[in-house]
Every structure is written in structure tokens, then in C-alpha cells.
Amino acid sequence: MQKTPSKLKFRSFRNPALRRRGKPSVLGFMQRFKFTSNTPDQISNTKSRLFLIWGMFMVAGLGLAINLYQLQIVQGPKLTQRARNQQMVKLRPFVPRRLVVDRSNNVLAVDRPVYTLYAHPKLFSESNQQMAEHLAPVLDKTPAELVKTFQSRNSGITLASALPEVNAGRVRALRLNGLELIQQYSRYYPQKDVVADVVGYVNMDRRGQAGVEYSQEKLLERSVQTVQLSRSGNGKLLPNHAPEGFLNFDDLRLQLTIDSRLQRVARTVLQAQMKKFQAKRGAVIVMDASDGSLLALTSYPTYNPNEYSKADISLFRNWTVADLYEPGSTFKPLNVAIALENDAIKADDVFNDPGSIQIGKHTIRNAGLNGHGRINIAEILQTSSNIGMVRIIQRMQPTVYYNWLERLGLGQTIETDLPFEVRGQLKGQKEFLGSAIEAATTSFGQGFSLTPLQLVQMHGALANGGKLVTPHVVEGLVDTKGQMHYSPNLPTPRQIFSASTTQTVVEMMETVVSEGTGKAAQIPGYRIGGKTGTSQKASPNGGYIANARITSFVSILPVESPRYVVFAVADEPKGANAYGSTVAAPIVKAVMEALIPIEGIPPSQEIKSDSPAKQ
Questions:
Q1: Which of 260, 293, 299, 329 is catalytic?
Q2: What's residue 79's pLDDT?
Q3: What are the pLDDT digits (tens) for 86-121?
Q4: Based on C-alpha coordinates, what's the Rg of the chain?
Q5: Would residue 539 show up in a list of annotated catalytic residues for this protein?
Q6: What pTM value is reported for the model?
Q7: CA angle 559–565–570, rounded 5-degree value
Q8: 3-state secondary structure of 311
Q9: SS3 sequence, 361-407?
């Protein structure tokens, strides 16, 4: 008999074997899900739970809405700015300082790229010895030195801190693993120590510390704007917000009045003479008296601005503008000019020089302790007679003389464009007029002090027809085509002496070179005026330093048309024969011999020759 499906199904549920296999029964199913009717209390509890859950959702939504309001409305602008700050970066691009060039556009100072070379021995693909042999010729070191350096650390070793671009290129060409080049910029001075006294140097922070690098900082620094660039998610800078041309800068350069050719000659001659006489220091100054431009200014000892950290810091102050000294006999021509201008003397006046003179309790003598008898004014300069100068100044009223010293600029600054200038020293009027010895010692250049550059300025007034001009080294800002874009405003020259007075004095100075103590400065065919000076060295504690002297020589050329002033000074030269005529005059002669062809100064008269001319 065939079984019905329903019975088969019923039996399958009741089959114990199936239950053991995990097949649920109807009773178990109903018990599991509790298909029972709910009581009123259970229904109330369920509603309470629903309201609680709904309330929690409402509170959470309200809190979210409040937070969104705070973020979007209250803190919105602040957060927006913070986001922009994260997406934008302020950048002040590096802009090099302007070049410094001389009057012929020879570069004196320039920013150039240099590199720091790092070594990471752990990344070397060759042995330390092989790496050292590759790098030794480039770094100017021995392989043994480099191997020892490589062994000091396994990474981050500095091999060179200011590697020139050429050497960096040679390092790159080696294609060695484990080397790293980091570019930076450094100020470089091609002339090294030749123009250091004028140009100066910049420190690690790129700030001028001496010379025109310090005094002309504003002219040497190019203006640069800070720009904002956007930044991508990975930190890469994007140029989409950069203003057009923000990396462009002008081609202006700071041009000086210095002539590097003349400067080099002056530097070489000065150094040789200072070593010969074992002088403490010395200086040479060449000025074009027509406008006060300095063609050369050098001192010894000096320093290499490329290695300024190795130099004595006292050398950073140019002593020709930063230190005072008593000029001695080189001031005598200026006193003659003062007396002539006031009609206290005439050019052909004669004075008696017995060798000594009594002024109150003081006795004044000539340097050679001998008298010269009756001598005229030109002979007073030729022999450098102290007694003759005292006689000249005695013909003037002390008040008038003192006023002239002030008018000449004693006790004042000269307002040069070189830094660290000091003011000259002149005693107060009451003290000066209170004792006759003051005017007497001032007549031969003692009892007051000035800078070497100020003495050159005063002699410039003798060389240009009586005008007191301002010595300066800055010509202005020029572009690469030579067009001037800025010139400094110099003080208006002051007329001190008449042209006739200055020409008379310069012609008297010519006899010093032709017949007197300045014969060592003679140059055949050229009329040169000059004056030697050998003065006692004043002590900081008062009085004078025993056996210490300052020797100097100042010249003006050409006499028939005066224009140039050449000055040399030596501080404490050694030897019994150390005078202005033996130490300083030969320096001036060598500098003038270089100046003549550079400036194209024609001979004053036909040069005589003992040998017949070649056919």
C-alpha cells in the first residue's frame, strides 16, 4: 500500500534519529521563540525602551547639530584660516647681495654658490680606501686623511663646508654612492686682501661687518617680497599662487672709485717697505682732489675677507679713518696757507732760525737741533724748520688762528662713507688761547690729532684751488650697461683758501721735492710738490712714547695743474734712518709712477736724455 506524503512528513519529525541529527521539533521551535502572549506590563516596558532609545537619538542629533553650528558658524572663519595656513606656505626666496665692483667694473665682492659635502660610509659601494683615492685630488687632502675621517662615523661626515662649484661638479662626475652635496651661497672676494680695507666682509648671517659691506648695507641688499605658495597633500609647493616675476631681481651693482691696479701697486710697495723697516703698521691713500674720490686706500697689516675668522679683529677697523695721530710736519704747508690767506705773511718773507726758541717755560727746537739762519718760507718747508713755522704763526692773532683751525675741520669728522670714523681732537678755545705754547706746537703739527684720511682731505684743498671736498669710495649703483641709477649726495665743497694762495703753497712744496727733504719722491719730467713728516708718537696716557715716531710723506701732482694727493704713513718704523724721507717718500714715488700712466698724466716738461735717440 502506498504511503501518503503527509504521513511520511509527520513520521520524519517524530523520528528520533532525525532529532539526534539536530533537526528541530515543532515544540522546540515554539519554545525557542516563546510564542506566548504578552502581558500589559511587558507592553509598557517595551514602549518605555522605545521612547528611551528615541530620546537618545534625539539628544545625539541635537548635539551633532550644535557641534555643526559651532564648527560651521562660530568657528568657521578661524578653521577656514587654519586650513588655508596648512595649505599655503610663506616663502622669502634667497636673493643675492649686489656685486661690488671697482671703477673699471672689476669684481671685488660677489655671491657665489658653494657646497657642503657630506659622506655616508654605510652607503659606500666601494671600500673606504677606494673612495678616499677618488676624492683626495678634488678635496686637496691625502687618501690617508680621508680614510681616517670615514672611520670616525658611519654617516653624516662633513668633508668640505665651502666647496666651490667647480669642485662640486668634479664630485658629481665621480658618480659615487654615499656622498651628498648641499648647496648654499657664500660671499666671495676675488681680490682677497688687496681691497679688504675698503670692501670689508660679511659674516655667516650675511651681514656686513666692515668696509662698505657694513656702511652700504642698504645699497647692497636687494629688496625681496615674501610670497605665499600653495602646498599639495604631500607637501610639494605649487606655483599657482606665485606672483609673476617674484624671483626676478635687478642687475645693479655697487661701483667704487677704487682702481684695483693702483690699489695693488700701493699694497705691494707698502708691504715691502713696512717689512724692511719693521713698522707696526702703515697706510697709503690716493685721492682725486677734484671731487674727493679715493683711487686707492690700503693699510698694512690687513686680512683676507674670504678667511676673516682667522684674522685679528683689530684689523677690521680701517685705521686711516678710525685712529688718530699727530701729523707733524706734513701739516706745515696748511699753516703756511692759513698765514698767507690772512696776509700775515708774504711769499717772499724771510725769518731767522737760530735752532731753538723759548715759549714761556718751554724750549722748542728743530728736529736736527741746528739753526738755518735767515730763510724764506719755501726754505722753511724744505728744511722742515720748526722755528720758522713758530715765527710765521706768531704773526697771527691766536683767536684768528684758532678760528682757522676750526674752519679747516680740526676736531670734526669728514663725513666719509667708510665706517667707524672718529672725530679729530683739538683743544678747547679757552685752553688753546690760555697758553702761547699751544699755537707754537700746532704750527709744526703737534698738540692736536686727526685721522690720516682727514690730512689727505686738507691737502686736497691745496690741490684743487682751495675747496674742502669729502673723501669717498662709493661712486653709486650702476647697471651692466654702465648707466648710473643712484649717486650718493655728498656735502657741498667748502671754499677754504683762494686759488692763488694754494698755487703759491704747492709751488713752495715743489722745492721740498726738488731741493729739500723730499728728493726721494722725484720723478723725471714731472713737477711734484711734497712734504715729509717725522713726528713723535703721542701716548694714550699723555705725553709722548719714548723712541716711537710716525713717519709720513704727502705729495701733490702735477704742480702746474694740481689734482692728485698721494699720502703714505708708517707707524713706529725701526732704525736710526727711519724718517719720512726714507720710509714714506719712496712709497709715494712708486705709487705716483703707477698713477701717471693709469690717469694719463702728461709730463710737465720734456724728459732729458743723455743718450742719443735711436734712428
A1: 329
A2: 72
A3: 666 565 556 789 999 999 999 999 998 889 999 999
A4: 44
A5: no
A6: 0.80
A7: 125
A8: coil
A9: CEEEECCCCCCCEEEEHHHHHHHCCHHHHHHHHCCCCHHHHHHHHHH
